[in-house]
Amino acid sequence: MADRSAGDGRTAGTVTGAAGAGSTAEIGRRVLRLRTERGFTQRQLAEPAYTAAYVSTLEAGKVRPSEAALRHLADRLGVSYEELTTGRSPRDATRLRAAVTDARRALATGAAEDAAGLFAEVRDEAERLGFAEERSAALLGLGDCALETGDLTVARDHFEAVERLLAGEPLPRRVPAIRGRAVAHLLAGELRYSCYLLESAIDELNASGLHDPYALLLLYTAAIAPYMDMGRTPVPYAPPSWRSRWRRAWTTRGSSHGCTAEWPAP
């Protein structure tokens, strides 16, 4: 069997391209840890495609492995290629998403401080593992917890952090954070700016053709409160099929707030 280390060996550094984003030293340590946990010798891990000497060199961080070598090692170790190259396991993502669900459940029962602690744990671990989606979900939850406890500045900071984290994502992904920020401004008495945030997002969604029903629902429902408090209606931004819903909301909320503005004709 030929020693494959000559063909795959390169100078130590960062594994780039298809091989992932981990440094050679990090991957080497990961291979060593996984091999030791499974009780493999270097020869058992290497064969039949590679040699024990190559695995030894890789574990020492002295060779930059090729994608083929990493896929072979991942298969032998019983992990995914992504987990071997990045240290992130799909199981970790599933676990973090479950933790977000638990935190949401705690928040729904009124235990905002307990929920905030759970969200903070998810945020920190997701950041350590490099899971942007789970981190943004945790930050969004922290913002909602801060709204619940009345920490409006903290809430805005969390929602803005979500928007920055998802800056390159389609607008519908950022809508929950935009809505949260608008609610924070509303609760701070900044009604017009709250409306501005919501209207701008609705206009952008409509102009871009991103007619995401859930995103629009979040924005339209959030717009009711500030419009009612200003004695206006959100009709110009609502599709015709939703206007009867606004009429019912206007009647209920408007009467309870002493609002005298009339509902405009369609």
TrEMBL record:
One GO MF term on file is: DNA binding
This chain belongs to the protein called HTH cro/C1-type domain-containing protein
Q: Where is the composition biased (Low complexity)?
A: 8-21
The residue ranges of the HTH cro/C1-type domain are 31-84
- InterPro entries tied to this protein: Cro/C1-type_HTH, Lambda_DNA-bd_dom_sf, TPR-like_helical_dom_sf
Which residue ranges does the record annotate as region Disordered?
Answer: 1-21
Q: Name one Pfam family in it.
A: HTH_31
* Species assigned in the record: Streptomyces violaceusniger
